[in-house]
Amino acid sequence: MNRENLYTTIKEMPEYERPREKLLKYGVNTLSNSELLAILLSTGTREMSAIDLATSILNFNKEGLRFLTDCTVEELSEIKGVGLAKSSQIIASVELGKRIAFSTKVNNYRIKTPDDVSNLLMEEMRYLKKEFFNVLLLNTKNELISVENISIGSLNASIVHPREVFVKAIKRSSSSIILTHNHPSGDPKPSNEDINITKRLIEAGNIIGIEVLDHIIIGDNTYISLKEKNMM
Length: 232
Hints:
Number of helices: 8
Structural class: alpha+beta
Strand order of the largest sheet: 2-1-3-4-5
Order of helices and strands: HHHHHHEEHEHEE
Oligomer: single chain
Radius of gyration: 22 Å
Shape: elongated
Helix content: 40-55%
CATH architecture of the largest domain: 3-Layer(aba) Sandwich
CATH topology of the largest domain: Cytidine Deaminase, domain 2
Number of strands: 5
């Protein structure tokens, strides 16, 4: 059996169906997820074209495209035909996309409601497989100065220490902060530990003179504001 009977390479496809040519002629919006990923991969394997390999990556996990938002090099490398080089290309591209999307939101972004926090961070945090505790630093106009990661892992008082939270706020001359973290389960219901940590940080902020405005817990396309729930 020759190679042509096993699969069709991209070069053997009609020119108008090749991902790169389609992008150049019709625009990036016309490409499917598999075609976009195939361009990133550049090449396939002896058994699969780049498009076939891209499809196998998207079908590797039931989450499909969402799997790529928080996967590791090791996880991607488990897929046949995807080595360290291709894994690194994919993860770097996804991360670059996240940073571009986030940077366009940050400039002069003003926080008025919990919805503003959700709009800023939901897409970045809803898919994370671990708990990320982030702090939004705000100026006197409630404009965002920066988003600082404080810890990664299940929240507890030892890893979310007032010192770690407020040292960054002091360095950036922040007048107030908003706490936020995600629940990988997708359910944003606060735990007792979440509430206790919030109260501890509020007390520390009152002493320092930096107000804790809210604590937003992010789930899967849903969130809870502890301030709105009168839990702080």
